[in-house]
């Protein structure tokens, strides 16, 4: 049994109606958004699918959680010098936490498996994830380590300098607890990045592969070659241009060069490569098939591209686990990332699903 909920909203009015009086589920997934105008009003009709069957298998992110400490300065301090910053702000960050936040904001059931210290930054990150709707059953507080931190020095010439403290993100036990691996095995899709040790990623990817769960590995985070055993368990490797160049040791300036580097990734074990190409867009390379290209959806205002990569990877994974075609996944991800670059910061800029669907409807 399936029911459909529609919300009709104008600036002055908001009507809700249900096609059924019994409402059996808490999972509401927007499936369509239609906009139309009358001379006096702009209307938006939101259609939700509510399914009384169990919620879909979750997206599970295993990765890093940080406190990102942003300071705006005119220039870097000299040795021994104390400088006053123009402003300072501490926000939840880390590629893992960002990607989990994005998926939850897109209204897909999401779990985060990660580690924080028993300190104020750990509480900040935990509260941000929880209030964003991310399930934290897999979050471990490590008393002996500090929460990961990134001191981001935003200079007035547009340059960013970052000091990173891995902290609890790097202090994992050699073998993952059974409950984490069970959660991974029950997932619809698993998202990894490179801000936690490779041995954690490898165990997670292997558990997912054994259970037939697809794994997306965002290549962002630590540099260095990828362990072949990890690559063998990964379904989609997602680097940006720089990461693709570093992983393969090949140039990635032109599309032809990027395609050749993707081919090298296939030879290294990654059968699908999702390349993020900044304002030039993205491309999916599936071994033995023609690449699928997706231009960036450009906006008039680009405020801050921080978090665009995490938003793109996470939105792509959400669309994929929902059964969309690769082409649709790329479009959905490009729309989410386009909205992200219009807002300052990483997690505050991640869009909800309605905004993404509205943008896609306008295209
Ligand atoms: N200026 C822009 N306008 C619109 N979309 C953009 C822009 N820059 C990036 N994007 C979108 O975001 C996606 C990811 O961006 P990018 O390739 O810069 O990832 P990234 O380098 O991993 O990002 P970051 O590390 O800053 O989070 C792109 O594929 C594109 O769809
Ligand atoms: K942003």
From TrEMBL:
Residues annotated as the enzyme's active site: 310 (proton acceptor)
Binding residues for K(+): 304, 306, 340, 343, 345, 349
Activity regulation as described: Activated by a monovalent cation that binds near, but not in, the active site. The most likely occupant of the site in vivo is potassium. Ion binding induces a conformational change that may alter substrate affinity.
Any matching Pfam family: PfkB
Enzyme Commission number(s) from the entry: 2.7.1.15
Cellular compartment(s): Cytoplasm; Nucleus
A single GO cellular-component term on record: cytoplasm
Alphabetical UniProt keywords: ATP-binding, Carbohydrate metabolism, Cytoplasm, Kinase, Magnesium, Metal-binding, Nucleotide-binding, Nucleus, Potassium, Transferase
One example of a Gene Ontology biological process annotation: D-ribose catabolic process
Keyword Hydrolase included in the entry's annotation: no
Entry-linked SUPFAM superfamilies: Ribokinase-like
Record-level Gene Ontology MF annotations: ATP binding; metal ion binding; ribokinase activity
Domain Carbohydrate kinase PfkB: 59-352
The protein's required cofactors: Mg(2+)
Cofactor stoichiometry and binding remark: Requires a divalent cation, most likely magnesium in vivo, as an electrophilic catalyst to aid phosphoryl group transfer. It is the chelate of the metal and the nucleotide that is the actual substrate.
Positions of substrate binding: 66-68, 94-98, 195, 310
UniProt binding sites for ATP: 240, 276-281, 309-310
Pathway(s) the chain acts in: Carbohydrate metabolism; D-ribose degradation; D-ribose 5-phosphate from beta-D-ribopyranose: step 2/2
Enzymatic reactions: D-ribose + ATP = D-ribose 5-phosphate + ADP + H(+)
Family, similarity comment: Belongs to the carbohydrate kinase PfkB family. Ribokinase subfamily.
Annotated function: Catalyzes the phosphorylation of ribose at O-5 in a reaction requiring ATP and magnesium. The resulting D-ribose-5-phosphate can then be used either for sythesis of nucleotides, histidine, and tryptophan, or as a component of the pentose phosphate pathway.
Oligomer status and interactors: Homodimer.
Name this polypeptide is given: Ribokinase
Source lineage: Eukaryota, Viridiplantae, Streptophyta, Embryophyta, Tracheophyta
């Amino acid at each position: 049994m399936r029911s459909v909920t529609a919300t009709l909203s104008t600036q002055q009015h908001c009507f809700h109606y249900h096609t059924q009086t019994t409402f059996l589920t808490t999972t509401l997934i927007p499936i369509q958004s239609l906009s139309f105008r009358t001379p006096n009003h702009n209307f938006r009709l939101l259609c939700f699918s509510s399914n009384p069957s169990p919620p879909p298998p979750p997206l599970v992110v295993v990765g890093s959680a940080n406190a990102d400490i942003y300071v705006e300065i005119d220039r870097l301090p000299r040795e021994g010098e104390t400088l006053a910053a123009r402003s300072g702000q501490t926000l939840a960050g880390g590629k893992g936490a960002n990607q989990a936040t994005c998926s939850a904001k897109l209204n897909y059931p999401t779990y985060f498996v990660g580690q924080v210290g028993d300190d104020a930054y750990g509480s900040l990150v935990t509260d941000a994830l929880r209030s964003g709707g991310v399930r934290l059953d897999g979050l471990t507080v490590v008393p002996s380590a500090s929460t990961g931190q990134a001191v981001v020095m935003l200079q007035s010439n547009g340059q960013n300098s970052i000091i990173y403290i891995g902290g609890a993100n790097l202090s994992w036990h050699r073998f993952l607890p059974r409950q984490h691996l069970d959660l991974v095995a029950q997932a619809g899709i698993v998202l990894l990045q490179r801000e936690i040790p490779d041995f954690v990623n490898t165990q997670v990817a292997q558990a997912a592969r054994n259970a037939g769960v697809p794994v997306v590995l965002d290549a962002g985070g630590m540099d260095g070659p990828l362990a072949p055993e990890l690559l063998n368990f990964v379904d989609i490797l997602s680097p940006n241009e720089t990461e693709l160049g570093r992983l393969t040791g090949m140039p990635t300036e032109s599309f032809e060069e990027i395609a050749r580097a993707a081919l090298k990734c296939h030879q290294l074990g990654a059968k699908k490569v999702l390349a993020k190409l900044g304002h030039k867009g993205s491309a999916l390379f599936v071994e033995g098939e023609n690449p699928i290209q997706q231009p960036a959806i450009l906006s008039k205002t680009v405020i801050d591209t921080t978090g665009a990569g995490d938003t793109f990877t996470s939105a792509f994974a959400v669309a994929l686990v929902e059964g969309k075609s690769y082409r649709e996944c790329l479009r959905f991800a490009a729309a989410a990332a386009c909205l992200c670059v219009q807002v300052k910061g990483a997690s505050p800029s991640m869009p909800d699903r309605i905004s993404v669907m509205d943008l896609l409807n306008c295209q």
